[in-house]
Amino acid sequence: MQDPERTLSQELKEDVMKKSFMILSLLLLLFLFTSLFSQTKVTGDPMVKITSLSLKQDLNEIIPLISQDVSEMTGLPEGFITYYWSYFETIYCPGCEDVGIKKPIFVDLYVPGFMSQEEIQTVMKSLAQAIENHTDYRKKDLFTHTHVAEKFQLYIMGDIVTNWSQVGGPDE
């Protein structure tokens, strides 16, 4: 016959071990999820234009939350990305309903010419996740495309950009 105190002690140890394992597993999953977005350290400074039908949510509350999330996921300082949100009066999107999109949202991502494809994709994925986190939109509702600002095609801070170092990028 087993000692009842020993059995209780063993049960407590097993319970603690199970809970510890679950907590460690959750922490590992959280770390892995976060690392999906932060594998690429983004060095560019994109600008984000979001356009949708009008929202019931307060944009003054939403945009800073999106900015904070994207900064955390990309490694970019919050001050590197400018966000602005405008509304469409109406959207006619034939075919959207057929794929389950009732109200599409459009994101124009303006990126400097020196950002790599991987960096651009990291920003796009981070934006999609942040918009889904803080609005009623799903990632599936987003249409995102880039506008690339190349050297000699960008006027900023009072001059034509002829070298990326003028705007905080690499020398060439």
Summarize the structure.
It contains three helices and six strands. The chain is α/β, with parallel strands linked by helices.
Structural summary, described in words:
- The chain is of the alpha/beta class and 172 residues long.
- The protein has 2 domains: 1-38; 47-167, Macrophage Migration Inhibitory Factor.
- Helices cover 40% and strands 19% of the residues.
- Helix 2 (59-74) links the parallel strand 1 and strand 2 (82-87).
- The protein is extended, with a radius of gyration of 23 Å.
- Residues 29-38 have low confidence and may be disordered.
CATH architecture label of the largest domain: 2-Layer Sandwich
Strand order of the largest sheet: 2-1-3-4
Stretches where pLDDT falls below 50 for ≥5 residues?
Answer: 29-38
Q: Give the topology string: H per helix, E per strand.
A: HEHEEHEEE
Based on CA atoms alone, the radius of gyration comes out at 23 Å
- Biggest sheet statistics: 4 strands, mixed
What is the helix tally? 3
| CATH C-level of the largest domain | Alpha Beta
- Principal-axes geometry comes out as extended
The SS-based structural class is: alpha/beta
What's the CATH topology name of the largest domain? Answer: Macrophage Migration Inhibitory Factor
Number of strands: 6
The proportion of residues forming helix, as a percent range, comes to 40-55%
Terminal CA distance reads 79 Å
Whole-number mean pLDDT: 83
In percent, how much strand structure appears in the residues?
A: 15-25%
**CATH homologous superfamily title of the largest domain:** Macrophage Migration Inhibitory Factor
Count of all domains = 2
